[in-house]
Specification:
about 300 residues; mainly alpha; two-stranded antiparallel ribbon; 12 helices; about 35% helix; rod-shaped
């Protein structure tokens, strides 16, 4: 009676259980060899790489390599994610993605460090950037969100864009060229903005948008608004920066003596009017009076003479 034949095939391994009875007239080893050849010889329609072309044709026309000469395309002998399916079939079936088209499932690229995945979304960074899923405004090959998270790029205004890109694109101004958006300089107090126009005061002054006539580093309108400078005529120019009217001293300086002051003194002391038809008469009388005072003074000191 013949024994029951069970053939279990693995890649390169044949197991037959139990052994045939000797009544078959064949040695078990010979049968094993025959079955092994039957199972391991590729069929004409084998297509392990799932490209619709028989493997032997892929190898013959050079579409697939067969470096070990076992008539199996090399790509069918790799299974980087160890799911029992050749990588090429995973990719062909969409079970694994290969966004960079290097023939290796993306998860294996990431696991091996061949591709980075800084945002941990399961997609190589270069593919995120190429697809526009992540921006790379500074073209350093790293998604902007990762540059910001790692501190490689600053994002002082928290708009998700590296500051250097905000400045380069004109989204933010950097009038003092310190590499920091002006709004962040102002918010941090690094630059003042006394007039609240969103431009650092130093830039307002250097651009001529604001004047600083007293060169104190503060726009004139702010000096006036704060009361640090007076503006009596309300023309927007601090008084200390304006030339005084004709005949008037600069602000804060006493008036020099002049004819008006002398006449006013004479009027106060001797009753000389500053104007009018009696001015000459009063002046003459005053001068005569002064001469009389000189005579009187001499006599009181014991000096006599006939001079009036």
């Amino acid at each position: 009676m013949f024994g029951k034949l069970t053939i279990t095939a693995f890649v390169g391994v044949i197991a037959i259980t139990p052994s045939f009875a000797t009544g078959l007239g064949l040695e078990n080893t010979l049968l094993q060899t025959a079955v092994s050849l039957l199972l391991t010889t590729p069929r004409a329609d084998d297509d392990c790489n799932c490209n619709g072309i028989p493997d032997d044709e892929d190898i013959a026309n050079g579409t697939s390599e067969d470096s070990d000469g076992d008539d199996i395309p090399d790509e069918c002998e790799t299974d980087c994610n160890q799911n029992g399916v050749p990588d090429v079939c995973d990719i062909a079936a969409g079970t694994s993605q290969d966004c960079n088209a290097n023939g290796i499932p993306d998860e294996c690229d990431i696991a091996a460090g061949t591709s980075k995945d800084c945002n941990a979304n399961g997609i190589p960074d270069e593919c995120d950037i190429a697809a526009g899923t992540s921006k790379d405004c500074n073209a350093n090959g790293i998604p902007d969100e990762c540059d910001i998270a790692a501190g490689t790029s600053k994002d002082c205004n928290a708009n998700g864009i590296p500051d250097e890109c905000d400045i380069a694109a004109g989204t933010s101004k950097d009038c003092n060229a310190n590499g920091i958006p002006d709004e962040c300089d102002i918010a941090a107090g690094t630059s003042k903005d006394c007039n609240g126009n969103g431009i650092p005061d130093a830039c307002d002054i250097s651009a001529g948008t604001s004047q600083d006539c007293n060169t104190n580093g503060i726009p004139d309108e702010c000096d006036i608004a704060s009361g640090a400078s007076a503006d009596a005529d309300q023309n927007g120019v601090p008084d200390e920066c304006e030339a005084p009217p004709a005949g008037q001293p600069p602000q804060g300086q006493p008036a020099p003596p002049g004819p008006t002051c002398i006449l006013f003194l004479f009027q106060s002391l001797f009753g000389i009017p500053l104007c009018g038809p009696c001015w000459l008469e009063a002046t003459f009388a005053t001068l005569v009076g002064l001469s009389g005072m000189k005579v009187y003074t001499r006599r009181r000191h014991g000096r006599r003479d006939n001079r009036p």
